[in-house]
Amino acid sequence: MRKIALTLVLLVSAAMPAYAELITVQSAKPVAATMDALEAAVGQAGATVFARVDHQAGAATADLQMPAAQVLIFGNPKLGTPAMNADIRAALYLPLKVAVHEAAGGSVLIYEDPVEMLSGLDIPSDAPFVKMMQGALGKLTAAAAQ
């Protein structure tokens, strides 16, 4: 019986996805204002906004309720193209995404560190474009939180 239980634990843990540590940035502003500031910062940085997804509005179309939550999808070919040239599987993780959700006293921005996000690929963690993605995400989310 013990062997069966151990086997089940191993099977379940192997089947579960690995969850990456996420970077969070607090903002005193509500979700919409924080996301507006993030979108403006992305545009000022010369990146392209591909989509802004409002999950709360989507839930409302199904007569469901949820706290305010939005995702901004954006990128810059100067950073993304070298990543995809290094390993085309990077296309599964790019463009970059930042989520903003409602929290006590304002909102929280969340994103995955590019080093961790691309860690299973044939991309060195110290590649210049990875470091630039890290810097950009840090600066953009900090600007949005101000």
From TrEMBL:
Species of the source? Litoreibacter janthinus
How far does the signal peptide extend, from start to end residue?
1-20
Keyword annotations for this protein, in alphabetical order, are:
Signal
Question: Which ranges carry the DUF302 domain?
Answer: 53-114
Name of the protein this chain belongs to = Uncharacterized conserved protein, DUF302 family
| PANTHER family with a match to the protein in the record | INNER MEMBRANE OR EXPORTED (PTHR38342:SF2), SLR5037 PROTEIN (PTHR38342)
This protein's superkingdom? Bacteria
Q: What InterPro entries does the annotation carry?
A: DUF302, TT1751-like_sf
Is GTP-binding among this UniProt entry's keywords? no
